[in-house]
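We emphasize that the prediction below concerns an isolated chain of 507 residues; any contacts that depend on oligomerization or on bound cofactors are therefore not represented. The input was used exactly as deposited, without trimming of termini.
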Amino acid sequence: MSAELSTETLFAHSDNGGLAYVAGPVNREWEGSEIVDDIGGLENRTHSDALLILTSTLPATPWQQDALLRTVRDRGFAGIACQNARVADDGAKRLAERFRITVLETDDPFKLAKACWHLLEARDALTLHYIRKVAHAIEYPAAELNDLLAHFSANIGHSIALIDEGGPLLESRESLPADLHREIDFTKWLSTAASGRYTAVSVRVDSPARQGLRLIIYGVGIGDRQLHALGTVAEVMMPAVAARIMIDEHATVSDSAEASQLIRDFLEPRSRHDPHIERRMHQRGWGTAGAHVAFHVALREPAATYSVHRAIRRQLETSGLPAPRTSTHEQGVLGWLTFAEAPSPAALQSHLTTLRQAFFSVREHLDVAMGVGSLKFGAAGLVDSINEATGASRMATGLSKSGYLVQVERYGVEELLLTWTTSDAFLPAAETLLAPLNAESGALVETLAEYLDNGSIVQATSQAMGLHRNTVSMRIQRAQQLLGIDLSSSESRLALHLACRAVLGRR
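Result of the prediction step, given as a token string:
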């Protein structure tokens, strides 16, 4: 932590009278401060390592500046602040370095003296000073949470951020250093942290809409008294932040529900050429012209869809992808990339690589799977790509070996189906389905598979297996009896065919 009165704590004070560094040691600490009209009034007193604040301006001539600095040194001061200090000549600056006296300029010496008083003696007055600033900030209208944090930050003169354990969610003024974030204790109601020259105080945001949030005030040179005062200020600001989160969350949920309904309307075959749907899509900024690649992120375990949508949107916003559109859809999150003109194969692969990286970053915290559609064109193409992506995400939920990611353009239809039959979800189901056949004879599964491979034709199956057609017929009839399945149904044949492929593929 910084000393209570130093160049850093003074520069960190939000109302320091327009302080600016001129010469001498940059990082200096003082035991106290003294404000006077004339240096002559200090001839009979000495002040050990204190800051002298002059209400008069720095003398204009070099010899007067030299004399002033020598007097400051002789009286035991370690720093001087006055108006017009920037006119100090090079000789005076060199003398300040030699005497180790920090020279500062201030537009308002009385404000600087009050800031010193706050830091050294008046903790309650400093707290009240900040709270007045917060009250003034609340008077300004805020369209969203980001605006509210910006008003608070501008008024108290320190950086503010809303964070969770994953990192900053919103920042105002200066970016939160990663090292400082790692030092924050998320278990306490109110806590301080320090890393390098940075110090911070944070408070838990008590909001039912979002869990695990903290409001943090941070900066360089914030001393213990300032941190104590800012801790109270953070607690005063927190309810306003929590209320704004609730308001924004309600608006987000309402907007997400509206967007999700629009997607359902757009995908409805009867609405494909509805100009009203097209107009609503364009009003939301979802242009249907150009080329599109859709993706769908499905949940593999129960979770709040809106919170997953928020996490994915946050990751996409920092990924560098060109304006991804997103919405909740079918127990997951639907998104797509739109290009005015078809991207080159290399450019498309670059975007898809970035998308995959964003997905795997989300998977570090959430159990999700993703399907990616192929590049399509126009409104009809967007529908096709979305349908491909949602279908692929269903397959991906059981494909651990692919990282729970299926990309349609990498597979043909047959390869996709075969990939699906080797998934973690399909194999156990296939083995359970065919268990009655294996329990009696492995030959029943092999015969059934060959029969389905040969279009359910007994003669072709007998020739392929080198068996008498009656033997094949008897085995197929026995398989139907054991499974209790009607092989005249095309759906049943498809399910059995895929199950046989999956089970026999593992032998």
